[in-house]
Amino acid sequence: MSRHSDKTAGLIRNWLDAVVVDLFRQFRWSFLPPLMVYFAAGISGLTAIVGAFFVKEYLGLSAAFLSGLAFWAGIPWALKMPLGHLVDLIWRWKVLLVYLGAALVAASLLIMYALITETARMSALMPIEAWYVLSALLAPSGYVVQDSVADAMSVEAVPRVDAEGQALSETRTKALHTTMQTLGRVALISGLVAVALLNIFMFSGIEMMSEIEKAAVYARIYLMALAIPVVSVSGVLLAVILKWRQRRRLRAQGRSADEIENLVDRPAEKAEANYWYFVGGLAFVLLTLAVGLSDIPFSQEIVFAGSMAIVLILMRQLIAHLALAKARALVGTAIIIFVFRAVPLPGAGATWFEIDILGFDQQFLSVLSLITSVLTLAGMIILRPLFASRTISHIVILLTVAATILALPNIGLYYGLHHWTGPLTGGVVDARFIAIMDTAVESPLGQIAMIPMLAWIAKNAPFELKATFFAVMASFTNLALSASSLLTKYLNQLFLVTREVRDRETGAITVAADYSSLGTLLIIVAAISLLAPLITIMIVQLTVLRTEE
Asked: Terminus of the chain with fewer CB atoms < 10 Å: N or C?
């Protein structure tokens, strides 16, 4: 018995060392600056719950409109193409873009703070709904600028020589790139954990607060969120300090000025400007403005189709720098991840149902967010060995099946599963228990799926074009989120879900609550989320785009 226990304990120790300890053993201080920028993106979730309640309590916007707004808010991420190439071209000055991104994020947050604290003055200048839309578009514009730089910093953060100045082996370099990209996602989700904890504290006792007291809490949260641009800018300043120390160390090793410049300040080969990326970015901006400012039908669809065409043209330009086999594998991988991220969501109606019918308040939604984020971190760390031993197709199959299984309790809640399980278990397995079990692992699976592709790019893309590779491939996979928003909008138009809306002055009901179509909507979303990725993987793996990495 003792021998068996010792063997089991040894296996556990070995597993912990290989899965958990080794991840942090590979950590380098040079990783910290980009991790701070990723962490800032994570804590952007601080205002997500406040935003949901602000829309519900202050604005009379439909679920379909909000899905459409999510589409427009996702479009700036396609601008990672020219931004990424710009980063490669201005490698030494790329951190200036972080300041620009920080300014845009701060402007978005200040608009929302003013909407809550100075509603009358803001509405006198422009309708509240228009201010909200402006804020919703400024924030992603700022984050995409910062994310483009963070991707470049994540490549730069991986050292090319050891402490003695000797070049690292290819195996060691691959391991460090995988660790850097994994820690990048960990930093992002850690930001969500931090804000979930803060939200739980901020929303404590909110069910007993008056409307004025709730508004004061909302305002304080938006004010606290100004820490987001502060954290990202601090990461840039830290990078400057670490580079100064690295230069000093290399000089002490007898390195020449040119060697130090190559190892610290820029890639070994300078990138040459490819104006296709800037022309494509300009075409994207002009298309978006022309269509967005007009009243032509299907404007979102036109912008999506045009954006996709531009991205595909630029992808064709980019993969020409790779060997044929690698180019095909990258395209196959991107298609699989695109479809996995493009599946529709239930939309705002599902959250309204949780608030109105199930009675979930701000604090409990914060608890759900915390559990989701913590288990995502655990999932990233536990699944990390799979990234080295399994192909992306195997990983996406696993995540697809997991997401579908975990969607079932959510469907059960709509059909009253908690009314049966609650009495059967003495009230233990009630609606909140089932929601925790469902939400805990489902929502962040897309983040996990991105890690293998990011690590592949970091290792295989030409060094002088790594930021461009990150940007173009991220633009393609992020367009999947725009496709998801469009599909979500279509389903919400087909299966209409409405919440109760009252006139703020008279209290009269202007829109009645109607959740009768939500059950069908949840079932269809679950079915599409299962079948679409699996069919795509089967098709890709039967073609020349088959991916073995």
From this structure: N
Rounded average pLDDT over 79-91: 76
- Return the pLDDT at 260: 66
DSSP type of residue 263: I
Distance CA 293, CA 288 (A): 8
- In whole angstroms, what is the distance from residue 304 CA to residue 489 CA? 14
Residue 85 to residue 338: CA distance in whole angstroms: 22
Rounded to an integer, what distance in angstroms lies between the CA atom of residue 451 and that of residue 433?
A: 30
Q: Which of 138, 129, 130 is CA-nearest to residue 110?
A: 138
Q: Which of 352, 345, 355 is nearest to 498 (CA)?
A: 352
Query: Among candidates 548, 535, 496, which has minimal Cα distance to 64?
Result: 496
**Which residues, in sequence order, are CB contacts of 283 under 8 Å at separation 6+?**
306, 310
Token pair of 538 as six digits: 């089967």
Rounded CA gap, 23 and 17, in Å? 9
Q: Is residue 168's pLDDT more than 70? A: no
Instruction: Return the bridge partners of 246, or none.
Output: none
By three-state DSSP, how is residue 266 classified?
coil
In this prediction, residue 268 carries a pLDDT of 46
For residue 246, the model assigns a pLDDT of 75
CB atoms within 10 A of CB 252: 9
Q: What is the DSSP annotation of 446-501?
A: HHHHHHHHHHHHHHHS-GGGHHHHHHHHHHHHHHHHHHHHHHHHHHHHHS--B--E
CB 20 within 8 A of CB 383: no
Dihedrals phi, psi of 225, to nearest 5 degrees: -65, -15
Angstrom distances, CA of residue 28 to CA of 5, 25, 156, 264: 36, 8, 12, 15
Tell me if residue 529 falls in helix, strand or coil: helix
What b/e readout covers 104-115, taking b as 16+ CB neighbours within 10 angstroms? bbbbbbbbbbbb
- Are 453 and 473 spatial neighbours (Cβ–Cβ below 8 Å)? yes
What 3-state class would DSSP assign to 118?
coil
Q: Is the pLDDT of residue 178 over 80?
A: no
Name the helix (H) or strand (E) containing 139.
Answer: helix 128-156
Cα 202 to Cα 39, 46, 53, 362, distances in angstroms:
20, 11, 14, 9
* Angle at 239 (CA atoms; ends 233, 242), nearest 5 degrees: 145
Q: Are 92 and 266 in contact (CB under 8 A)?
A: yes
Q: Is 483 exposed, middle or buried (0-12, 13-18, 19+ CB in 10 A)?
A: buried
CA torsion 179-341-233-138 (nearest 10°) is: 180
Confidence of residue 442 (pLDDT cuts 50, 70, 90): very low
Answer whether 148's CB lies under 8 Å from 471's CB: yes
Instruction: Specify the residue for token string 């970091």.
Output: 458
